[in-house]
Amino acid sequence: MEYSNAFVGRLDQPSESEVAAALGPVAQHWTDLIAWMAEKQGVVGQEWKGIVVRKYGWSLRLQQKRRNIIHMSPGKGCFMVGFVLSDRALQAAKEADLPKSVQEALDTAPHYPEGYGVRLLVRRASDLSAIQKIAAIKIAN
């Protein structure tokens, strides 16, 4: 999975137009996911974070009542979506009908004190359905 954050080394938060320019044709999927999370899941909080921006760049956290649900990191022509899943949410996601590549990501997710870290790359619209399923599972658990 080749991916590089589009804003590595940038000291200030990117604007919406800069994110859209970096994402290119995938920008619509970025916007669609944010809108779906707000409309269907009630996830309306947004916070840009630049932790060690010289190395990792910037990411957008989608939050529900201060709880981080999804981390979205813009790349060039793609974006990365990250989840931290509890044991129960990980098990529910493994039992869901998800593509083989997503199942493999769940099976190999590293364990951290906060939960299991799952990262999925978005390059096309078809990648969003698995992310939406996992987001709904995380919110429910």
- At the first level of CATH, what is the class? Alpha Beta
| Strand portion | 25-35%
Q: Note the total helix count.
A: 5
> Within the CATH hierarchy, at the fold level, what is the topology?
Aspartate Aminotransferase, domain 1
Q: Strand-and-helix sequence, N→C? A: HHEEEEHHEEH
Which CATH architecture?
Alpha-Beta Complex
**Rg (C-alpha, Å):** 14 Å
Could you characterize what this model shows?
By secondary structure, the chain is of the alpha+beta class. It has a single domain (16-140), classed as Aspartate Aminotransferase, domain 1 (Alpha-Beta Complex), CATH 3.90.1150. Helices cover 38% and strands 26% of the residues. It is built from five helices and six strands. It has helices spanning 16-23, 27-41, 87-95, 100-107, 128-140, and strands at residues 45-49, 59-64, 67-74, 79-85, 111-112, 115-122. It has a six-stranded antiparallel sheet. α2 (27-41) runs parallel beside α5. It is globular. The mean pLDDT is 96.
Question: Which short descriptors sum up this protein?
Answer:
141 residues; alpha+beta; Aspartate Aminotransferase, domain 1; 6-stranded antiparallel sheet; 5 helices; 26% strand; globular
Write the layout of secondary structure elements.
Blueprint: H1 16-23, H2 27-41, E1 45-49, E2 59-64, E3 67-74, E4 79-85, H3 87-95, H4 100-107, E5 111-112, E6 115-122, H5 128-140
Antiparallel strand pairs: 1-2, 2-3, 3-4, 4-6, 5-6
Outline:
The protein has five helices and six strands.
